[in-house]
Amino acid sequence: MKLIRIVLGKIILLLDAVFAPKTVIQRAAEAQTVLDAKTKTWTMYQLQACPFCVKVRRQMKRFSIQIPFKDVGSDPQAYQELMEGGKIDQVPCLRLVDQSGAVQWMYESSEINAFLEKL
User: Fold this and answer.
1) What residue spans define the domains of the chain?
2) 43-92 confidence digits (pLDDT tens)
3) Is the whole model's pTM more than 0.85, yes or no?
4) Burial label, 79 (beta-carbon count in 10 A; 0-12, 13-18, 19+)
5) Angle of helix 51-62 relative to helix 2-18, nearest 10 degrees?
6) Which residues in the chain belong to E strands, given as ranges?
7) Is domain 2-117 given the CATH code 3.40.30.10 in the classification?
C-alpha cells in the first residue's frame, strides 16, 4: 500500500507541475502587499503529494495568495502543532490568525478554496 501511495504521489506532483494553473487575479502592487501582510500570519499545514493539498495550492496560485506552508510529513514539529492546535489529523488545514490574535483552524479543501476565493 505504501508503494502505491508513493507512486501515485509522484504522478500527482508530475501532473501538477506539467499542468500548472495560470494566475487569474493580478493585483496592483499595493493591494498585493496588503494581502501578503494579512496572510503572513496564516499557516497552511499540508502534505506535498496529497491531492487535496495540491488542490488548495493550485487555488492559491490562481489567486496570487502567499501563505507559508508547513509539511506535516517531513516536519514532526509541524505535525505536533497541527495536533495540539487543530486537534484533527487531517490536511490540508489552514490556520488563521486575526488581528486580535484569535486562531481558527479550517479543514476541507473545498471550504479553504471557497474562503481563499473571497479574499
Assistant:
1) 2-117
2) 999 999 999 999 999 999 999 999 999 999 999 999 999 999 999 999 99
3) yes
4) middle
5) 20
6) 43-46, 69-71, 93-97, 103-107
7) yes
